[in-house]
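Continued from yesterday's entry.
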Amino acid sequence: MTTLVTGGTGFVGLNVLEQLLTRGDEIVCLAVNPLPGAAAREFAKLPGKLHIVQGDITDPGSIEAALERFGCKRMIHAAAITAGTARDETDPTRIVEVNLLGTINALKAARKAKIERFIYPSTGGHFGEAGINVGHYLDEDADHPVPNSMYGISKYAAERGVLRLGALWGMDVRIGRVAVVYGRWEYETGLRDAMTTILQATRLAMTGREAVFPRLGPADWIYAPDLARALLVLLDATTTKHRLYHLAIEAPFDMTAWCERLRKRYPSFSFRESARIEECNIAPLAPFRTPFSGRRLREEFGFKPAFTLDSAFDDYTQWLAAHPK
């Protein structure tokens, strides 16, 4: 059964492709950017079959053509612009075109092609003010987003659109709100306005420089391969009890925990927190929110991460060493 992955050359998309190819699936990757050279070389060695199609989700015809050409039966719609404040100010229209209208285009194309299952990776970035200092893990039903960025606004509108149109059109739609993902295949695509603070710090450590960052608090980090596995759980499940799931593992940690491990691995590295934003050389794209509850995903599907913090650290630093920028 062939799966179409939009945005498959991006951070989350590449991890999804790798997991699908590892288990031998046939995949169509629809993306604006080409497949990175390292990914092309490594993915070619995996048992699955990958078709690369250049296309833009703001062009409905490119989605429809890919679905028809390869006879895709499932879709993971991962294409998005992860925008920061500067892009909010200068290009809000494009953010909405890609994140909201592009999602509607993908859903309409999926309906036309009679796709059996539509998976939408959403975000915790749309919680905005409602996600700060809540005092408990954010729940799918009890806690409601109040987005305060164009990224959050457009992604939340898209999420609600998927639920609304899926219900009207009788489609099997499933939404996975992504916790704070880090790890393999993160790189500058031009569609993500900041790298994760973990990658920023690790790059500094690998070159023997000091990391200076504001007090950020713990975040519900999830290692990218584990996130991809969680999305595949939603893709593969014959039935689900819900349409919306938080893709989280309830093991939050802060930047100090990561940087302590970096300091042991790279002795010339140092780090400190600073209240003076102007001297920080690490900054998050948005304020860290209260972590997600992963109860629904865990209880319904028995999902458990394959990586602990320590094993993810070892895997990722080795991976980065083998994939220099």
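--- second protein ---
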Amino acid sequence: MIRISLVIPTHNRAAQLVAALESVVRQDLPRDEWECVVVSNNSTDDTEARFAAFAAAHPGCGLRLVAEEGPGVSYARNRGLREAQAPLVAFIDDDERVNEGFLRAYLEFFETRPGAVVAGGRIVAEYPAGRPAWMSKYVEMPIANPMDFGERVRPFPAGRVPGGGNMAFRRAGLASYGGFDPTLGRVNGELIGGEENDFFERLLLGGETIWYVPGAVMWHIIPPAKLTGAYFRRLSYNVGVSQRLRAEIHRRLPKTFVLEIAKWAATLVLCCTMPPRKSRWLLRMRLEISRGLFTKIKN
């Protein structure tokens, strides 16, 4: 019996997907207790062929591929929720690796806490070309979103939510919350995210507790292409755009503006405590987030 489903949305990253699947097939759960659903979101590369070859080389692992034409990761994640056969569903992204006990950690957590609906795990940033010298922990957040809150299961700290690439849900508890908002989330390489943050906000407003499960470990692979100034400016700007969209959805735009002004004060103080190179990147991040936040997007 399938007890937990793993969903991986993917778009034109066949090589990264295969690398992620290499870690998935090493799960320490019996093979008949889990499945992996890859949702190809309008991929035009050789994703289908490479997945088929990988699945053929790993028979009995419960790997299957479905196609989703709705553009964007929100459509892909919602399709994964519909396709999953298990009562528990975990998500990762296609540029990640997971530990052998990833699915077991989530399965054991939900089985010991029958009232829990949502959880997230540990995220470790991995830099194949090395971690840049200009990177502070503040700048690293939008790039890699590392997450480590200790060795015990606990509620997420206030103000923090799981990363979209390491989260799990009890499907029965999600009925009243809907799915991921397709007006949010990355589409065809655009960096406007926030669909998981919006989903978590709805869960919190509904009274749910978001749990941290340290045994579910994910390594987020950050290539050099995501460490350029141009990419970082575009990413930071779209973080601001996403914050504005979510604030409009939840009718708290004035509060979000005030909070951003307060963040500027904190940023300036922090810049006085770090080397000039790191402070320049932090100021660049804040400036681009503010630009995205305070710019009204035309419909």
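The chain has a mean pLDDT of 92. The two ends are 46 Å apart (CA to CA). Will compare against the first tomorrow.
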